[in-house]
């Protein structure tokens, strides 16, 4: 990992600094207040007339829909009985929203034409903090990975039929512990969907979903893996855990996981991490109240955003380059850093 | 009757007669010309016997006669000043000593502003510029000293050295530049050099000479305080002349040896000052210290122990001189022993000024650098004994500079005396003095030192630019390489990350009680530290909650030990204790003051108590504290950090109000009065003050204020003074002042300077804080007693700060009287 002390100006239009003095950290572009409880999930999406929206899930079980134009909440969806909403995702066909809560429900919402009603729900078997992952298999067919009934299992379902595709259980004696984070993924070249799962023991496993077997496993951390993010184009990913280290790994030949390097952090604990869709920068949500931004290619630290006064639980990017961070201090900060060219 | 003598006498008598009666210019000229024959300057010289007879017996008569004739009319008898020229030639060409004496005599005898006086003064100036002074002195070098000539020498000596004074007295404002001491004494120096040159020449020629008159001149000039002027000329020249020339060196040694005892100190001090280094001093003085008792006393006692005015280069020269010759080295060892003894004597530490203690310490360090291993080993036990004694008494002192001197000297001296043992190491702050002293302690390089050290320096300095360019070029190339490898086209520029750091406060307690619990019971050191850091803020934010547990909190904080290396632990603890005391002053202050005399505390804790009490009193008595405290207390725990926002809107509102309001009173709008409020210290000053005074004279097993723990006593005196000062404008100030003056009275002759300083500042606080009317009504006797004591201290105390403080207190007393006098007079 290159950690440059001094930088040389490149042909970057963001050059706002002189060569020797780094610019001060910018302020958030705006801050959304009114979630009334800690923010645990964030997701950018497009509303009806293409208006950009931000969805946030709170500790008290509400999902807020924020307009990024008026910067006001448009709606608050209450579907999880006051239990924490841990994961939000929209499906590309129609404004359909998936929300995972700790009430053991994964709700499917219809947001089209101003509606906000639960149209379907999947009953979950595990009450942990593991976030689900979804993969579009074809038009109107999605694959969903959620923690399964057994404490170390991962259940893969097909939506909207809710039929179980497979149940991924590590072989006896592997002692991986609970799955902590999931990422479904299908390479363009291969028809077989793959699942990356981070486990409680700090290891990362690559599952072949249809064969129900582990293709590769690597121990990246000594603490539970709290979050992982994958850059499919480079076949590389990064994971964070409860310790002070980010691990960068790659998928050699789509099959073998290999740790490429680690990046030391100042304070321990990563709650979430995301790579921007254009694969330029990586953002981490830290237990130390700070959001850190890295250049994804080199893992060079770019910025430390010390705005929040409590643990940052989640970060999200949208396609225009906005970065949102939700924190235990009930605020959502929205930043515009290094806008994509 | 000798025929030669009678012939000369006849001629002289006739000439005198003509000179005194004749008005004819030509006659006078021819008479003078005929007299000049005897001076031996004309073609027709008189026989040598006659010349000698003339100059021995008749020359001064003629000169006096010439002086007597001097008047404008007489000089105008011949045109073009011929007569004056001839007249002057007698003074400039005849025997110099007589001419000089007659000149001085006539100047002294002339009426104060007069034609004759000015003429004579100008002539004397010519005499000096013609270099005749050398002739005057040279004349005294060859002669054997008989009683008559000794009298002459005495007279000459007074005149030669006192010339600027005599002339200055006579001529007042008209005096000529040549007679200013700053011009005359360098000239005298030059003349002395010329005489010395002549002496050296005649010694080469096998003639015997004496330099004792020169020594006397030198000595007297130095006694008159003209060392700088005369030696400033002599020493540089002698430095050059004595280099590798034995004859000059011997003349020089003799010159200093013959200086009379009473002038020896002045001469030696001047020489030490003027000599550029020990080598030169050694060349100029030779082994003077072993030959002359007086010189030895001056060099080894007076300049080291009785005076402390020498600069460091002087001290270096002096001690270096003692070290340069094997005959003198025993003196250096002796000096070191005595220095160490003085340095370590507890009485000297207490009674000599700090400046002198520094001087002795520095001399000690220089001595150590000059002495070799063997010499030190020979008297090691003796030296170590007095060193240890001194270190002990110095570390006991309550004045930090004295302690620091002890530490520095002990470190250096023990390293020299006991090189094989483990090095002694003290903790002290570096400052100018310590650096200076440690630089003195670096041993002088051996003779071949510089040449050895020289060559390696040059290549390094020559090389360094190359190295630098290599260094700066290397990494740059490295970065570029790595950049190109990682396609640097979209390099992103990082923001300032300097604010990044380890996060704290995840475990910060939110309530005072939590802090208390964390500080007492917690084994979790992060939480313990967080609690310590948060405590002051919490206490100030929630006074009510603090009051419930204030005593426990104070107790815990007082006993708190630094278990982990928390940065700024002392300060955090102190701030927290002050906050607690301010929040619940009556109970906590009383508790702390009582604990001050309790059994099981360290001196550190006791001094902490004093500091906390003083700081808390200061905080309580600060005007406008209430308003600020209320403001600080208002934001609830959940509110956002909006500290910057509030003043902004406030400013906007005030600006608007100001625009829309018309004020009729001009002054009112411009300045806002400082917020007035009652002195909160008023109600509780007694709790702070009186318990501290109660038991200072009752020692307990671990704590004896009047014995060893004088440092704490000094702190106590200072703290009481501060409390008294802060109690200004309170009702309790009068009894406090009375009690404090009694305390001061009991301790006024304390031996420790730090304690005395505290007492003096306490007296000043009483004078400042207690209203004048009450001072006169209730404390009159005490004040009168204090006044005489203050006057004594101001004059006689060894410590400079004490004298200063006493003078300040006296001034306050004066002011008090001045203010009361107009009140009582009508």
Automatic annotation (TrEMBL), chain A:
Cited SUPFAM superfamilies: WD40 repeat-like
Keywords: Repeat, WD repeat
WD repeat ranges per the UniProt record: 218-259, 305-341
Stored Pfam families: WD40
InterPro entries in UniProt: WD40/YVTN_repeat-like_dom_sf (IPR015943), WD40_repeat_dom_sf (IPR036322), WD40_rpt (IPR001680)
Protein name (record): Guanine nucleotide-binding protein subunit beta-like protein 1
Organism: Bos mutus (wild yak)
